[in-house]
DNA sequence: TGGCAGGGTCATA
DNA sequence: TATGACCCTGCC
C-alpha cells in the first residue's frame, strides 16, 4: 500500500490488500457508517466526518489531509495489520475457511473506546437498525456539529455531555431501560472514577473485569469494547449467533465460559477476528 | 392485529 | 448457576 496525497483534502491509498468497505462496515462492529447513493460510505468517527470509496485496488478518503490520515485513519482502519498472514494462521477449519472467504476484506476497526462502550450498552437485547437510530439521535441532540458537502453531521457526545442529563432526557432517544445505564456510566467516566485509558493498557482479563464494573456492561459488551475499541484480539464476544454456531459445530451444550475458553485455546490473540468472520458469515447467511 | 424475539444485563433465589 | 423482566420495533 502506498499513501498518496491527491490534493489538499484527498488521500488515496494505492493498491490496498484485504480491504472491502461493505464487509468492514456491515459486519456489525460499528454503527455510524452509511452507504451513500454514489457507492461510497460516509461516517462520523474520532471527531471527523469522512467519505470513503473504493476505486479498483485503490481507496479514496475525503476530506482528509496527510496529517489526519496518519493521526487517525491509519490506525482506525487497522492498515498496518497483515490480514494475509492472519488468514493464513486461521486457515484449516472448514467453517472458518468459508467465513473468511465470504467476509473477504473485513477488518477490525480501532474505534473510540468511549463511543464503543455506550454503543454496545445500547446494543443489549436490541436490533442493529434500532441501535443505529438511538446512537444517531444521541449524537444529534448532544454531539458537536460537523459540516460536509452542505450537510450537518454530529459527532458522538462526550462523557461530560451525557453525564449532564437525566435518564428521562436520555430516554427521549428511545433507548428505553438502557437510559440509566448510559447516564450512570457517563458519570463514572466523566468523574474519572474509572479511566478507559488505564483499562486499555491493562492485560485482557483484568481489563474485562474492570469494564464489567460499569452499569449495563456484562461479559458480551465488555468483550465488544475490548475488541472494537481497545485492540484486544483475545476478546471473543459471545452473542446468541456465536453461541448457536459454536454449540452446533464444536461444543454441544457449552456454557459461555466454555465457549470463551475454547476460543482462546483455539485462536489465541486471533480469537476476536475469528469471531468477527464467523459472526458476519452466519448472520448474513441465515436470513 | 397480537405475539414474539432481538448482537444482553441485572436482580433474585 | 439459572430464570424472568425489560424499552422498543419490525416481522410473521
State the main characteristics.
DNA-binding; 3 domains; Endonuclease Iii, domain 2; TATA-Binding Protein; alpha+beta; damaged DNA binding; EC 4.2.99.18; hydrolase; two-stranded antiparallel sheet; globular; 287 residues
Major pleated sheet? 6 strands, antiparallel
How many E strands? 8
What is the radius of gyration? 19 Å
Let me know the average pLDDT.
96
Q: Could you give the order of the helices and strands? A: EEHEEEEHHHHHEEHHHHHHHHH
Rounded to the nearest angstrom, the distance between the terminal CA atoms is 36 Å
Give the SSE layout:
Layout: E1 2-7, E2 10-14, H1 21-25, E3 33-35, E4 41-45, E5 48-55, E6 58-62, H2 66-76, H3 83-90, H4 94-102, H5 113-123, H6 128-142, E7 145-148, E8 151-154, H7 159-163, H8 167-171, H9 179-190, H10 196-200, H11 204-211, H12 219-228, H13 240-249, H14 256-267, H15 271-284
Antiparallel strand pairs: 1-2, 2-6, 3-4, 4-5, 5-6, 7-8
Helix pairs in contact: 4-15, 5-12, 11-12
The chain binds a DNA duplex (13 and 12 nucleotides) through residues 28, 120-121, 123-131, 133-134, 171, 174-179, 181, 215-221, 224, 237, 239-242, 255, 279, 283.
Q: How does this structure look, described?
A:
- Keywords: DNA damage, DNA repair, Glycosidase, Hydrolase, Lyase, Multifunctional enzyme.
- Its EC number is 4.2.99.18.
- The longest helix is centred in the middle third of the chain and has 15 residues, at 128-142.
- Helix 4 crosses helix 15, helix 5 (113-123) runs antiparallel to helix 12 (219-228) and helix 11 (204-211) crosses helix 12.
- It is built from 15 helices and eight strands.
- It is an alpha+beta fold and 287 residues long.
- It folds into three domains: 2-80, TATA-Binding Protein (2-Layer Sandwich), CATH 3.30.310; 113-228, Orthogonal Bundle (Endonuclease III, domain 1); 240-286, Helix-hairpin-Helix base-excision DNA repair enzymes (C-terminal) (Endonuclease Iii, domain 2), CATH 1.10.1670.
- A hairpin with a 2-residue loop joins strand 7 (145-148) and strand 8.
- The mean pLDDT is 96.
- The strands form two sheets. The protein has a six-stranded antiparallel sheet. A two-stranded antiparallel sheet has the order 7-8.
- Helix content is 49%, strand content 14%.
- It binds a DNA duplex (13 and 12 nucleotides) through helix 5, helix 6, helix 12 and helix 13.
Amino acid at each position: 500500500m502506498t499513501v498518496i496525497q491527491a490534493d489538499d483534502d484527498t488521500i488515496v491509498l494505492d493498491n490496498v490488500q484485504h480491504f472491502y468497505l461493505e464487509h468492514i462496515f456491515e459486519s456489525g462492529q460499528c454503527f455510524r457508517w452509511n452507504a451513500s447513493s454514489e457507492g461510497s460510505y460516509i461516517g462520523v468517527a474520532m471527531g471527523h466526518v469522512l467519505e470513503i470509496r473504493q476505486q479498483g485496488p485503490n481507496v479514496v478518503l475525503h476530506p482528509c489531509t496527510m496529517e489526519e490520515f496518519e493521526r487517525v485513519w491509519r490506525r482506525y482502519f487497522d492498515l498496518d495489520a497483515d490480514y494475509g498472514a492472519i488468514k493464513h494462521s486461521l486457515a484449516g477449519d472448514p467453517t472458518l475457511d468459508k467465513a473468511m472467504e465470504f467476509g473477504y476484506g473485513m477488518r477490525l476497526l480501532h474505534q473510540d473506546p468511549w463511543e464503543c462502550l455506550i454503543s454496545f450498552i445500547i446494543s443489549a437485547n436490541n436490533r442493529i437498525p434500532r441501535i443505529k437510530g438511538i446512537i444517531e439521535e444521541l449524537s444529534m441532540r448532544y454531539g458537536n456539529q460537523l459540516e460536509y458537502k452542505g450537510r450537518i453531521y454530529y459527532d458522538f457526545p462526550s462523557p461530560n455531555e451525557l453525564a449532564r442529563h437525566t435518564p428521562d432526557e436520555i430516554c427521549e432517544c428511545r433507548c428505553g431501560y438502557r437510559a440509566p445505564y448510559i447516564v450512570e456510566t457517563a458519570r463514572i467516566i466523566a468523574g474519572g472514577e474509572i479511566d478507559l485509558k488505564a483499562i486499555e493498557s491493562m492485560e485482557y482479563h483484568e481489563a474485562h473485569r474492570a469494564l464489567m464494573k460499569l452499569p449495563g456492561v456484562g461479559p458480551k459488551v465488555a468483550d465488544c469494547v475490548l475488541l472494537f475499541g481497545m485492540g484486544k484480539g483475545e476478546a471473543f464476544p459471545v452473542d446468541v449467533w456465536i453461541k448457536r454456531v459454536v454449540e452446533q459445530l464444536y461444543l454441544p451444550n457449552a456454557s459461555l465460559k466454555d465457549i470463551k475458553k475454547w476460543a482462546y485455546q483455539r485462536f489465541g490473540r486471533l480469537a476476536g477476528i475469528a469471531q468477527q468472520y464467523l459472526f458476519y458469515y452466519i448472520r448474513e447467511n441465515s436470513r
